[in-house]
UniProtKB/TrEMBL annotation:
Coiled-coil region list: none
Subcellular location: Cell inner membrane
Pathway terms, separated by semicolons: Glycolipid biosynthesis; KDO(2)-lipid A biosynthesis; KDO(2)-lipid A from CMP-3-deoxy-D-manno-octulosonate and lipid IV(A): step 3/4; Bacterial outer membrane biogenesis; lipopolysaccharide biosynthesis
Enzyme class label: transferase
GO molecular function, one term: Kdo2-lipid IVA acyltransferase activity
The protein, known as: Lipid A biosynthesis acyltransferase
Functional summary from the UniProt entry: Catalyzes the transfer of an acyl chain from an acyl-[acyl-carrier-protein] (ACP) to a Kdo(2)-lipid IV(A) to form a Kdo(2)-(acyl)-lipid IV(A).
Claim: rRNA-binding is one of the keywords in the record: no
Amino acid sequence: MERPRFRKAFLHPRFWALWLGLGVLWLVVQLPYRVLLSLGRVLGAIMYRLAGERRRVAERNLELCFAQLSIDERQRLLKENFASTGIAFFEMAMSWWWPRARLARLAHIEGLEHLQAAQRDGQGAILMAVHFTTLEIGAALLGQAHTIDGMYREHNNAVFDFIQRRGRERHNLDALAVEREDVRGMLKLLRAGRAIWYAPDQDYGAKQSLFVPLFGIPAATVTATTKFARLGKARVIPFTQRRLADGSGYRLVVHPPLEGFPGESEEADCLRINQWVEGVSSECPEQYLWAHRRFKSRPEGAAPLYDKRRR
């Protein structure tokens, strides 16, 4: 895709409110990092009270995945998860607008040699991530150290799409955005030895998925990771990021490539991925995106696990 360019149409009055909001957000994120962390927690507390549908979905997911916890423990975890989501709002703006040097001071990167080795060998790398609330800033921080291409879906609002893409791509001057449905484009990049950020931990429907256990629950799991690795002749390199509790920034870990992947079957690969997702999300559950309906697709004949959405 071409890099985003400013257009005169973005000055139309229908975008003025958005420009005003973005301007206020730009001013706010000039504050010190620890102040932004506190503001994010306040925003998260407001979201907890007002975003009823998201709260109910997250609460249900925690009930399904952490049944061993008491109700009080899950409620504390739920509130911490919303605090993390509120912080993520400011982290997004930081990754778009902070000077590169200021942002880089927050990065504590481990395992970069695994991406560098794949690049040196001319082999593509599927940077297998999960949907942590720190997703946006994690990708930005790693992108300053190594070029990463990304799967991309165009936003409905043209101005927001422009700001978002420009903010993301400024960390990777030669990075490319790949339309999420452009399988050929992704395979071409992998065969050219590039690294592509990819997260297989959400429910994209049963059509392109297999039902394999996640936290003991049959979960629709995409088989695309196997296909991309095989057809793109690429290594699958897990990647995690975590916001550090002491306020010093973020621990980014590029893990060693998965050995023997693809395996003997797509089902075995999907199970292996879900076991990894289960492990990393359990290590830092307050920073995982529990507001996603991960178990919305169900095996034939199985009862739904979520209440119907309220209108």
